[in-house]
Amino acid sequence: MLLRVLPSVYPRHPEPIHHRIRELTAMMSHLDQAGRQHLLRLLQMISDLHPLVLSSLVPLLIGYISDSDLSDTALGVLVNVAQASPASLIPFLSTLRNVGQKNPWLLGHIAKIHGAVGLTSEVGIYITIHFHASNPAS
Predict the structure, then answer these.
(1) Which of 32, 55, 68, 73 has the fewest CB atoms within 10 Å, i.e. is most exposed?
(2) What is the tens place of the pLDDT at every residue in 85-99?
């Protein structure tokens, strides 16, 4: 029930939610489908307004991209985080590439993440070019 109201509370009182977002996100696997959708909506709102708050949650969010019910929204959140903190996604580029190869419909989000990371360093540019060369549909 609480997850249903948090997206409406967030714009007015983001700080208390920021302080508990790790605990909330860790609960994802214990929630029913409706609870997951409400939590994902909250994560999307946070990533739109304050993406750096979620940069420490990248490993948890990466874990959710293998779930077909969560993958699209989780990747949308990761795109916003990558644009604000590209370095936080560098360790997960190979995982993202593997997910994109298995799920081509997710390549758009994955290409955006690779593009954001590519702007950070020469190595990032090389990884991004390699990704786009091996996935021309993205």
Answers:
(1) 32
(2) 998 998 998 899 888
Tell me the C-alpha distance between 54 and 56, whole Å: 5
3-state DSSP assignment of residue 31:
coil
Share the mean pLDDT of the chain: 86
Instruction: With beta carbons less than 8 A apart as the criterion, state whether 44 and 76 touch.
Output: yes
Contact, 48 vs 14, CB < 8 A? no
| Structural domain harbouring 18 | 2-134
Q: Please tell me the distance from the alpha carbon of residue 43 to that of residue 12, in angstroms, as a whole number.
A: 15
Number of domains within the chain: 1
> Which pLDDT band holds residue 55 (cuts at 50, 70, 90)?
very high
Task: Name the token pair of 53.
Answer: 């708050």
Answer whether 3's CB lies under 8 Å from 39's CB: yes
DSSP-based three-state secondary structure for 42: helix
